[in-house]
Records
---
Amino acid sequence: MKICILGFGAVGKGVAKVISMKRDEIKDKYGLDIIITAVSDTSGAAVCEEGLDPALLLEIKEKTGKISKYPEYGVPNLSNIEVLNNADYDCLVEVTPTDIEDGEPAKSHILKAFNDKKDVVTSNKGPLAISFADIAQSARKNGVQLRYEASVGGAMPILNFAHDTLPSCNIESILGILNGTTNYILSRMAKEGSSYEQILKESQEMGIAETNPAQDVEGTDAACKVVILANSILKRNVTLKDVEVVGISKITQEAISLAKNEGYLIKLIGEVSSDTLEVSPRLVREGSPFAVDGTLNVATLKTDLADEVTVVGKGAGSIETASAILSDIISIYK
Amino acid sequence: MRLNLVLELLDIPGQLIDALDPIGRLGANIVTVIHQRDVKTERGTVPVQITIEGDKDTLDRVIDALESQNIQIMEVDGVIRKEKIRTILIGNIVDKDVKDTLNKLNEVEGVKVIDFNLKMSDNPEKSASKIIVEAEYGKRKDIMKKIKEIGESKKFLVINEV
């Protein structure tokens, strides 16, 4: 299978890395040979029908910061749409930066790939949270596959888990911690008694929170995931503006310590059900499945037959997120 | 028939007598009363286990009478009738009339505020209060929604249970 990777940031590099680590194993196990035929970043692209070397791609990116410097096959200033026109590929891996205003340019990349009859695997929340219905419909119309496990919960299996592992069950609601950064901040506030501002600053220094942390701490990132879960698993037709969102920036040490006295923790929880779409700080009992620390994500699916099923996993990280993308690629082949 | 009740009484003189009064008055028999004043709930009330005997109508009337006297019936034959719902509000609750907030909560049907805790901050806006209400079992979701509405109408950040 020939794949084209648009975007070569943390996730894109992770995909190249896991392919270089696992290529032979996947070939032996499943008979699937994954060949990277094109990779793009803001500098341009590297395109080669016979396949690019994942290790060399990573080395060039590391050394020069520009994928267009790839020997022989690097092309400066090639746009992503041009890459899709020029490259020979079966499956697009769309991992460009997320935009939550209009989902672009990722949305256009995905729709173009569908129209060209290519499958798509993405971790990009923007287009799914803004235009889920259009994208899913285009995939159906063109008879191609769309997979996006990595867009919710990173390495924590939830979308494929609900669809493939629990097909006998109706999922009535999903409650979970869907953002690792806020969970890290709240966990440390509860453990150390420091202020929100203090922990946020340290998290930024450690690279766990971004320089502009608004999307995480104001709950937007978790809200995008709520939308994806609602559309994909509960078959609702909703977008980001339908979610009621409250973030964690106003959580105080006073509130955390009152909760603690009662045996509770405060966590940023996303909730999806037939009548609720919400992201808000909530009280969870210490020792309950939601009482996970650090950057972990967790989700409890309430089902009609199996009652509650809970999954936990790493919600972010280059290799962890890439593992979900690689699993999606293998699923498409199977 | 027999009915096992668990009541929760305030630890002040006369409470047990008041609770037992309608049972005899309405014609039910008291089979057992287990009352240990030393064993208290976390908020200082005394749980009392009572078994009463009588026909169904009489027992129903007893329960109605107890409830109209504001006596808390926690369990009937092992079935929990009340549950606690915890909420934390962040904001300057002192400035926004604590009593009015609690009254509004008490006005919600089937809800009674049973605990209130305040933690003041140097910056009053960062103060937090913990409110525990007792509510009829099974109405949790509706009541949490109402608590949220009341809190948000006063511009508090409302942190409900999951």
Note: The two ends of chain A are 11 Å apart (CA to CA).
---
Amino acid sequence: MMLQAITLVVAQAIVLLAISPFLVGLIRKVKARFQCRRGAGVFQPYADLAKLFRKQPVISTTTSWIFTATPYILFASTLSAGLLVPTFISQTPMNFAGNIIALVYLLALGTFFLILAGLDAGSAFGGMGSSREAIVASLTEPAMILSIFAIALTAGSTNLSTIVHKTALMEGIVTDPSPHLMALAALCIVALAETGRVPVDNPATHLELTMIHEAMVLEYSGRYLALVEWAAGLKLAVFLTLIANVFAPWGIATTLTPAAMGIGLVTYILKIAGLAMLIGTLECMFAKLRLFRVTDLLGVAFILALLGLVFFYILRG
Amino acid sequence: MSLFSIDVGSQLVDLGSALLLLTCFAIVAQRRLSACVDLFVLQSVFLALTASLVAFLTGIHHIYVAAALTIVVKAVIIPRILKQVIEHVNVKRELEMNVNVPTGLLICGALVILAFFITQPIIPLGFLLTRDSLAIALAIVLIGFFMMIARKKAVTQVIGFLVMENGLFLGATAAAYGMPLIVELGVFFDLLVGTLIIGIYSHRLQDAFDSVDTSKLTTLKE
């Protein structure tokens, strides 16, 4: 039993780690096709990571231990957050370790250290990126927490595995569609903002003045940069998994038979690849918002999440 | 009527009202005037769909007529008048507001909760399948009212007024399966004439002040 649980945790970690560069590559590929370019292959990010891991990092002499510790903290916290989310089996073995609130704050821990690291090197761009990331993070957090609470209320639990399991089996949940719809819309906006995507941030930008996430990590190189990039991919994978499995858990393995797990794995990969392609499409349809308009968008996300909560009470009659 | 159960029908009505409220928030967050009009059209279409659904579930036919009138008046004629006004006054977006967008959204969120608390004691007394929508209808009326206070341009104030009317229509459908048809007809006629008058008034405002900012009207005092 113990061995099985450990195997499943390791399997989930491998799936998440393996799929996240693919998602990044897929989004880039979709964008390239929309812009009439051929673009790099979807497996290019793996080659990039491999190359970065072999390179020697250069570290500024003005930095403290925070700068070198941050990539490890960021990577570890994002991966542990990923282990709390059900991927291809609905009952993750790690579900005893934390609920949705733990997930939100594990992700916030990584963001916090990244903000510190951006300030640590003392470059103007890093500090600017940190200050912007702090704005975005502080505005997305309430929206994310509220939207997740709306979902937790419909399932009667804050444990992600329980929520996904109940929703997949369609039992013991409130089936009213309105709270789910509002929370889904809010969580999608939060996901775009948190993973540094258009319309909040542009991951492909070369202009430092418009950067948020990229500005914070400008000073990183070599294996540190590889870890930061991989963690960013992981964060994207965690958010897509969360959206896919909380709102559309169909196909996920609710039992531990090999056949169910196989189906679960295939549908999981299809679902998040579909979401990644959707993000790529959206990035081609919308322009990046001005920084001072980001508050409007995140305000909408917060209100949507709040409405999800209110609707849960109103519409139960 | 037996196509789906009353329970599912009731949930669909709830979903329709939720979408109506959602478009309200989109209008509050929107700065471009023509996009505000488009969102209002969308809201009216949702309203007509919700009303038709109620008519279908209850078999009360005059709600169909009101829904059709909603489409004709609020989704075709009034938007056309408003677009003409926008073109004439040559104002594309609203930059200055009495309340900025994030604060406005928060206030509207508070209004929804307020509406919920006001209607909470009344709702369980009802026995109609649409009774849950009453809270949302009241919230839409309050948000429309807020729009009229928060915005300065005459066009967006008209949209606030129209949003209020949408809320009232939903409220009437939710609380009593719609008003008598003669009342609905009167309301639609009033709306049409009201929008026309405000349209002409915006033209005059533009000609007199080179702006449709209603706060400029305070300079009229002696």
Note: Residues 6-217 of chain B form one domain.
